[in-house]
Amino acid sequence: MTKKVLVLPGDGIGPEIVGQATRVLDALIADHGLDMAYESALVGGSSFDEHGVPLTDEVLEKARQADSVLLGAVGGPKWEQFEIAVRPEKALLKLRSELELFGNLRPAILYPQLASASSLKPELVSGLDVLIVRELTGGIYFGQPRGIRTKDNGEREGFNTYVYSESEIERIAHVAFRAAMLRDKRLCSVDKANVLEVTELWREVMTRIGKEYPEVELTHMYVDNAAMQLVRAPKQFDVMVTGNMFGDILSDCAAMLTGSIGMLPSASLDANGKGMYEPIHGSAPDIAGQNKANPLATILSVSMMLRHSFGEEALADKIENAVSTVLDQGYRTGDIYTDGMKLVSTTEMGDAVLAALK
Ligand code: NAD
C-alpha cells in the first residue's frame, strides 16, 4: 500500500532544507520504485502567522493519519516574544505527545571525510557510528509529584520524581533491540542501578526483554562511566539505550563528538514504528533565506524514515551512500567547509546528492 508522509517544513531554514529532502523523495518515487505519497503543511511560527496557533487541529489530524512525518525545524526570534503556549516549539511537544512518540533515535555518525570537525582526535572518532535510543515521554522530566515547596522550618526545597513503569521500559527496550537488529547487534543499556531503584528495575526489564532478541549482545553500563567512555573511546558503542534525562545529556554529548550539527538526523517513534523524522539542529535564523544551510541532516532523516518506519533498507543505504559520495567529491556547505573543498549552496548540495543517487 502507498505510504503516506506528512511533510512539515516549519520556519527559518526549514523550507530550504526540506525542499532538498523532498527532491530526494521525488527521485526515489520516480526512479527507484518507492511507493510513497506526501503532502506538506504549516507548523511552528509559519502556522502561527497564518492561523494564530503553532499547530492546527487539522494538521495534527493529518499527522495522525500519516504513516510518518518529516519535519524541518521550528522557531525564530520573530516568535520569541509570544507567550509560551503559542511558541513554535509547542507544536513539536504536542506532536510528540499526541502521537505517543516515546522512542527517540539519535545517531551520531562522523563521516571519515569530516573527522577534522570533531573536538576529539581524528583517530578516535573517524568513522564513528553510534545510535543513542532515548526514552522521550517518561522518567524524571514527567514524573509526579514535582515542584518547589516550603518546609516546616521555612526553607524551600525543589523536588522531582524519577519514575518508570515496567511497560514504559519494555516498549523502549523493544525499540532499542529492534534498532540493534538492523545494525551490529550490540546494545549497551545505560543506568545508575547502583544508586537508583528505578534504574534497578530498568536493568532487570532490559535483561528480560533481551532474551527475546538472542542475537543481540546486551551489556549494561552506569551513566557516569558511559559519559566517560563516550569521550574516551566512542567507537566501542553500537547502540545505547537509556532513560529520558540520561539520554538528553548523552545524545548531545555524542552529537558534539561529530562536530557537525548540520549532518545529524533523528527519529521519534511510536510503538508501531510510525515516526517523526527531523534534523537535530534548529531553524538557524542567522542563515535563513540565504541558500546556505546544510540539507544533509534532513536528507539523512529521510533515510532513517525509510529504514525504521518502512523497512526500505536498500533505499536507505542508497541515500547514505549518496551522502558519502558527495563528501568524497569534496562538496561542502559553509558549516562543514575546510580549505581546499568545494563550497556549495543548499540547492547545489541537493543537486550533488541527486546526481550521486543516479
Ligand atoms: P540552531 O541549531 O538553529 O543553530 C545553531 C547554529 O548552527 C547557528 O549558527 C546555525 O546557523 C547553525 N546551523 C544549524 N543548522 C544548520 C544547518 N543545517 N546548516 C548550517 N548551519 C546550521 O540553534 P539555535 O540558534 O539555538 O536556535 C534557533 C531557533 O531554532 C530557536 O528558535 C530555537 O528554539 C529553534 N530550535 C528548533 C529546534 C527544532 O525545531 N527541533 C531545535 C533546536 C532549536
Task: Please render the helix and strand layout as text.
Layout: E1 3-10, H1 14-31, E2 36-40, H2 45-51, H3 57-65, E3 68-73, H4 88-98, E4 103-109, H5 122-125, E5 129-135, E6 147-150, E7 156-159, H6 166-181, E8 186-191, H7 197-210, E9 217-222, H8 223-232, E10 239-242, H9 244-258, E11 265-269, E12 275-279, H10 296-308, H11 313-328, E13 331-332, E14 342-343, H12 346-357
Parallel strand pairs: 1-2, 1-3, 3-12, 5-10, 8-9, 8-10, 13-14
Antiparallel strand pairs: 4-5, 4-11, 6-7, 11-12
Helix pairs in contact: 1-10, 1-12, 6-7, 8-9, 10-11, 11-12
This protein binds nicotinamide-adenine-dinucleotide.
Describe the structure in your own words.
- It catalyses: (2R,3S)-3-isopropylmalate + NAD(+) = 4-methyl-2-oxopentanoate + CO2 + NADH.
- Catalyzes the oxidation of 3-carboxy-2-hydroxy-4-methylpentanoate (3-isopropylmalate) to 3-carboxy-4-methyl-2-oxopentanoate. The product decarboxylates to 4-methyl-2 oxopentanoate.
- Homodimer.
- It contains twelve helices and 14 strands.
- The mean pLDDT is about 95.
- The chain folds into two domains: about 1-100 and about 270-358, 3-Layer(aba) Sandwich (Isopropylmalate Dehydrogenase), CATH 3.40.718.10; about 105-265, Isopropylmalate Dehydrogenase.
- Helix 11 packs across helix 12.
- The strands form three sheets. A ten-stranded mixed β-sheet has the order 2-1-3-12-11-4-5-10-8-9, with helices on both faces. Strands 6-7 form a two-stranded antiparallel ribbon.
- With about 350 residues, the protein is an alpha/beta fold.
- Helices cover about 40% and strands about 20% of the residues.
- The structure holds nicotinamide-adenine-dinucleotide.
- Nicotinamide-adenine-dinucleotide binds next to helix 4.
- Nicotinamide-adenine-dinucleotide binds near residues 76, 92, 285 and 297.
